[in-house]
């Protein structure tokens, strides 16, 4: 949305503004004295970017219009075509220069049989442009051919529309002069960076880290003045003014350095919060400027006002006679003066005096160097202050250690006295504990004997409980429904049969071994020695029973407790075939008849479960 508002819409408004201007076509050739002045070149706005040079060259005269305002700003992403003629008054080689904010610029020079194209593009590999460390520039021969020159400009940000024309020698001198200034300042900054790094590595203090960030930001700003950082910007796709970021970095890091250097959190907590808030606000403004590309958010005057809280904090510290605040206050004063001079020159020097306007940068460089030197001295003061604090802390630590040593000696004397008293008390207490231990041992023996008696009583009670339950079963002829409450399923019946079968312990029928594992089948047991697995129903009355064990158990109970049983009624009650019920009941009757009457009279119905058929037969034979 922002690109739309600053792109085609802005170009359309620009066309509406220049539409009423009378006259089309260039009437006066431009000279090195007429650069950036209206009436010497015409403008065609291509808001879509679809027109090539051939299309523009074939446009009718009415498509080009004179630019009414030399300070007109471009719209981001819109293509501008400037058409003009050049008259070389001096006869020397010329240089055509555009503002450095243009990432891409194309110049079409009249030549025999057509036009010669020269391109400046920061996206091109390093060294392929005619001028590396300068604004986008194009070299022109001393003999200027007749015909129109076409300058194709496009910027991703809003920038002044126009160009400048210099004699080649003058442009060379300007470039050398500016390079000399910038690289001298850069050398001083590099020395300051190394100086700061030494302190940072040695002291690990945050103030030196913030000052290092300030120096790096100032160095980046200095290098942008000669276009040295332009090739690096090709890695960024968002729109921004490349001076805004170093300026913001200088401001934020300087605010944090002042806060840390003056120890505002300890001495002036109100200013500490104010400086941190201003630093955070400056970062938010920078992000908003990058996102919205609004001119008002890119102005360096924002940094000018952001430094005032730091200046006031330094002034208050000076009035409070903080020794390490004087040089910092002077440095901030010099920096504000440099900002003021630069802002005034940028705001009030006419664009037609561009070459003089560049000379005002030397004031900013000189003040910056002086300010860096003074701030470097503040680093020394900071180092001395920290060393003094460290020495004071060490003295306090030594005094504290001596005090602790005296206290330790006194504690040792008290400890010896207490140890002697404690030894006496320990001997007495040991004798008491030995006596108490002997009493506890005797009590433990008594408790052990009582536990054995309780276990015997519990066993007797368990046996009595079993007898009681058996008595309940023998005293009452329970229905199948009541019987199902005691034995609800086959698993409960298996558990009951297993308890009866192995109530005196497990003995393997195959090898006689008495230790076992739990078998794979429910309630079965497996011999640990021979691995023989035996189920609870094996060698019992229920061996090889093909129907529900619960119903088979009830048939046994019914046959034992009911004289003259009704098989038809029994089969209906337990819901099995009458033939199956009659067959199993007959089997039970046969087993009962094989037992001696005298032995049968003393047995309850559960004991018939474990009757060994072979043994029962032998018993019956003996009886006979």
From TrEMBL:
Residues 183-382 form the 7TM-DISM receptor extracellular domain. It holds the Pfam family 7TMR-DISM_7TM. Residues 383-457 form a coiled coil. InterPro entries: 7TMR_DISM_rcpt_extracell_dom1, Transposase_Zn_ribbon. The chain crosses the membrane at residues 182-201, 208-228, 240-258, 270-290, 296-318, 325-342, 362-385. Residues 1-23 form the signal peptide. Gene3D superfamilies: 2.60.40.2380. The keyword Membrane applies. Residues 488-532 form the Transposase zinc-ribbon domain. Keywords: Coiled coil, Membrane, Signal, Transmembrane, Transmembrane helix. This is Uncharacterized protein. It comes from uncultured Cytophagales bacterium.
């Amino acid at each position: 949305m922002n690109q739309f508002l600053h792109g085609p819409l802005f170009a359309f408004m620009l066309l509406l503004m220049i539409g009423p201007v009378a006259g089309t076509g260039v009437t006066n050739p431009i000279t090195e004295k007429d650069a950036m002045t209206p009436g010497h070149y015409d403008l065609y706005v291509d808001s879509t970017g679809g027109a090539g040079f051939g299309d523009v060259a074939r446009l009718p005269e009415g498509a080009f219009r004179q630019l009414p305002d030399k300070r007109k700003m471009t719209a981001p992403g819109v293509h501008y075509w400037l058409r003009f003629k050049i008259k070389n008054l001096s006869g020397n080689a010329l240089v055509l220069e555009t503002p450095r904010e243009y990432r891409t610029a194309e110049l079409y020079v009249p030549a025999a049989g057509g036009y010669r194209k020269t391109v400046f593009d920061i996206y091109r590999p390093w060294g392929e442009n005619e001028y590396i460390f300068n604004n986008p520039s194009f070299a022109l021969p001393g003999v200027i051919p007749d015909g129109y020159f076409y300058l194709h400009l496009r910027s991703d940000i809003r920038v002044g529309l126009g160009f400048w024309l210099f004699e080649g020698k003058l442009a060379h001198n300007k470039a050398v002069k500016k390079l000399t200034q910038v690289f001298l300042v850069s050398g001083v900054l590099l020395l300051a960076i190394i100086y700061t790094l030494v302190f940072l590595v040695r002291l690990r203090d945050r103030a030196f880290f913030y000052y290092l960030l300030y120096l790096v930001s100032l160095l980046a700003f200095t290098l942008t003045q000669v276009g040295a950082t332009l090739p690096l910007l090709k890695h960024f796709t968002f729109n921004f003014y490349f001076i805004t970021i170093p300026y913001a970095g200088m401001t934020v890091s300087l605010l944090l350095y002042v806060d840390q250097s003056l120890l505002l959190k300890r001495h002036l907590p109100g200013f500490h919060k104010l400086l941190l808030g201003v630093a955070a606000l400056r970062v938010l403004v920078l992000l908003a400027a990058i996102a919205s590309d609004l001119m008002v958010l890119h102005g360096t005057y924002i940094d000018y006002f952001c430094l005032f809280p730091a200046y006031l904090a330094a002034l208050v510290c000076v009035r409070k006679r903080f020794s390490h605040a004087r040089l910092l206050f002077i440095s901030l004063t010099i920096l504000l003066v440099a900002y003021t001079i630069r802002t005034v020159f940028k705001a009030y020097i006419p664009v037609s005096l561009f070459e003089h306007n560049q000379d005002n940068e030397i004031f900013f460089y000189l003040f910056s160097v002086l300010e860096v030197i003074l701030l470097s001295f503040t680093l020394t003061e900071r180092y001395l202050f920290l060393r003094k604090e460290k020495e004071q802390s060490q003295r306090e630590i030594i005094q504290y250690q001596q005090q602790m040593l005296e206290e330790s000696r006194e504690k040792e004397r008290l400890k010896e006295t207490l140890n002697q008293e404690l030894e006496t008390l320990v001997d007495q207490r040991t004798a008491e504990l030995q006596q108490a231990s002997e009493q506890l041992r005797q009590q433990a023996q008594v408790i052990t004997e009582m536990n054995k008696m309780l276990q015997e009583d519990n066993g007797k009670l368990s046996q009595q409980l079993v007898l009681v339950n058996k008595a309940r079963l023998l005293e009452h002829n329970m229905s199948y429904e009541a019987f199902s409450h005691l034995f609800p399923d086959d698993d409960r019946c298996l558990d009951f049969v297993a308890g009866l079968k192995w109530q005196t312990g497990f003995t393997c029928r195959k090898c006689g071994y008495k230790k076992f594992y739990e078998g794979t089948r429910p309630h079965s047991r497996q011999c640990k020695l021979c691995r023989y697995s035996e189920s609870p129903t094996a060698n019992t009355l229920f061996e090889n029973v093909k129907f529900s064990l619960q119903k088979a158990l009830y048939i046994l109970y019914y046959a034992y407790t009911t004289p003259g049983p009704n098989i038809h009624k029994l089969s209906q009650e337990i819901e099995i075939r009458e033939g199956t019920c009659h067959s199993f009941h007959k089997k039970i009757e046969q087993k009962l008849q094989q037992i001696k009457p005298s032995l049968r009279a003393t047995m309850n119905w559960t004991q018939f479960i474990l009757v060994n058929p072979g043994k029962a037969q032998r018993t019956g034979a003996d009886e006979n």
